[in-house]
């Protein structure tokens, strides 16, 4: 392995179950693969009926979700709760019911709860944010989510799951090109400090715990690599910390790269003041959040302060300057110019530390503003409506792809069907996904258009019969009535 490869940093990510193709494009591409025009028309009709039927199935569940959230909307929920005259126990039950519905919708939309390992990987590097961001835990409620997870256990919950939950879905890439002059200076100081730590052998003391954890993580990755490798993919992280030292890199423009979470949803409740009980539940939806900067979506963030490296630089330069000044005063003839030069250097170092911090604060404020205006998609009811529609779109695409494979390629076991669906998506759309065959088959059987033979293989009915089984939907009757009204 050459030096350039050594400097590459890749992150292994599990491939998700989301079908990343717009439904109209998916339907029309599959329809064009059908040879006979009559079958093509029946297939398009079936796709519409599948969507209408699935939407009707979820309608009642979605209405319950919205009705419950209206009681816990941070804006108007308190007034509606007062009008209901409910006891504290009844309100507790309703909010747990809301969370149960919400987590089901999240799962159906293929959102996953971010684990501690994923958070550690995200925090193991820096991208645009160079300040340590912490959550003010005293401002967050700890009872709501703690009670939910006690009644609904989940694996690999993060340490902060009693205060807030971060759901994530999808992976992307973010690139930024700039000169990064101040960041390069900080990087040089950091490398110099690391060199001093190595020479003084203090590095072993401070890094013992982290290296032990890193070894455990590597061991765990090795154990799981054989079974996860085919479902995983790798994304390269390009950071200033790993760049080669050269005049071209130090003085020229660089492009850094960071994997992003395509969608993030944060759920939390603020802590109750002494005067009243807080019942509002916040649901905030973000897009394209760089993993290393995911702190910008955290709730109730504390104002950033100087980093430990800033304090080391600040105090170290002050001590060195003070010792040098005292040493020069002990000389027979104190040279004022020497003292002035030393003090100027110390003041320069301190000013550099201060102005670097101020620049980082400006960057932080810009990122927060960007997350509010550009990266925050919605919150509250808007997020829930988006999720409800997202569930339907994903389920419809899964059902359509699975039925198409059975229709075109004949009987298949569940494992074969899973593989064929993934191959179709790759061949026709050049996209990889971990197809959720279990869910697709269950929906097809519930619709009554797919069955199993005696040896467990799945097969579908013909297109005309499938349309007859589902039957004319309410939406089709409404469209037909509208067309007859508009006709002369």
TrEMBL record:
<feature type="transmembrane region" description="Helical">
    <location>
        <begin position="336"/>
        <end position="355"/>
    </location>
</feature>
<dbReference type="Pfam" id="PF12576">
    <property type="entry name" value="DUF3754"/>
</dbReference>
<feature type="transmembrane region" description="Helical">
    <location>
        <begin position="311"/>
        <end position="330"/>
    </location>
</feature>
<protein>
    <recommendedName>
        <fullName>Aminopeptidase</fullName>
    </recommendedName>
</protein>
<dbReference type="InterPro" id="IPR022227">
    <property type="entry name" value="DUF3754"/>
</dbReference>
<keyword id="KW-1133">Transmembrane helix</keyword>
<keyword id="KW-0472">Membrane</keyword>
<keyword id="KW-0812">Transmembrane</keyword>
């Amino acid at each position: 392995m050459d030096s350039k490869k050594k400097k590459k940093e890749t992150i292994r990510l599990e491939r998700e179950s989301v079908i990343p193709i717009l439904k109209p494009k998916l339907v029309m591409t599959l329809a064009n693969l059908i040879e006979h025009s009559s079958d093509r028309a029946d297939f398009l009709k079936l796709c519409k009926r599948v969507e209408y039927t699935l939407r009707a199935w979820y309608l009642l569940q979605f209405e319950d979700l919205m009705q419950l959230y209206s009681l816990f909307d941070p804006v108007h929920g308190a007034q509606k709760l007062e009008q209901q005259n409910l006891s504290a126990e009844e309100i507790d039950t309703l909010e747990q019911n809301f969370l149960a519905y919400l987590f089901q919708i999240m799962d159906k939309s293929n959102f996953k709860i971010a684990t501690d390992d994923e958070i550690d990987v995200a925090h193991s590097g820096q991208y645009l944010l160079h300040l340590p961001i912490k959550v003010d835990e005293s401002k967050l409620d700890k009872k709501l989510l703690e009670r939910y997870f006690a009644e609904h256990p989940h694996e690999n919950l993060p340490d902060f799951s009693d205060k807030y939950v971060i759901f994530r879905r999808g992976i992307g890439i973010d690139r930024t090109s700039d000169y990064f002059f101040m960041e390069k200076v900080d990087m040089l100081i950091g490398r110099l400090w690391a060199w001093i730590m190595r020479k003084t052998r203090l590095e072993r003391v401070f890094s013992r715990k982290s290296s032990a954890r890193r070894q455990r993580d590597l061991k765990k990755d090795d154990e799981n690599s054989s079974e996860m490798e085919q479902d995983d993919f790798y994304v390269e992280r390009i950071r200033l910390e790993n760049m080669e030292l050269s005049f071209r890199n130090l003085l020229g423009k660089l492009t850094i790269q960071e994997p992003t979470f395509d969608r993030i949803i944060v759920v939390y409740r603020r802590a109750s003041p002494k005067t009243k009980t807080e019942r509002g539940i916040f649901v905030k939806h973000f897009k394209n959040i760089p993993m290393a900067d995911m702190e910008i979506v955290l709730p109730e963030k504390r104002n950033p302060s100087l980093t430990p490296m800033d304090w080391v630089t600040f105090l170290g330069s002050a001590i060195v300057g003070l010792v040098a000044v005292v040493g020069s005063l002990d000389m027979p003839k104190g040279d004022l110019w020497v003292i002035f030069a030393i003090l100027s250097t110390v003041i320069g170092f301190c000013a550099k530390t201060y102005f670097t911090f101020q620049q980082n604060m400006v960057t932080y404020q810009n990122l927060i503003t960007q997350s509010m205006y550009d990266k925050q998609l919605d919150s509250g009811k808007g997020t829930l409506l988006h999720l409800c529609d997202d569930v339907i779109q994903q389920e419809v695409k899964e059902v359509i792809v699975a039925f198409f494979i059975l229709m075109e390629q004949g009987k298949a076991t569940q494992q074969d069907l899973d593989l064929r669906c993934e191959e179709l998506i790759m061949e026709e759309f050049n996209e990889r996904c971990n197809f959720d065959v279990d869910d697709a088959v269950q929906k097809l059987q519930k619709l009554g258009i797919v069955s199993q033979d005696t040896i467990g293989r799945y097969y579908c009915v013909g297109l005309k019969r499938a349309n007859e089984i589902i039957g004319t939907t309410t939406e089709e009757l409404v469209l037909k009535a509208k067309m007859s009204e508009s006709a002369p």
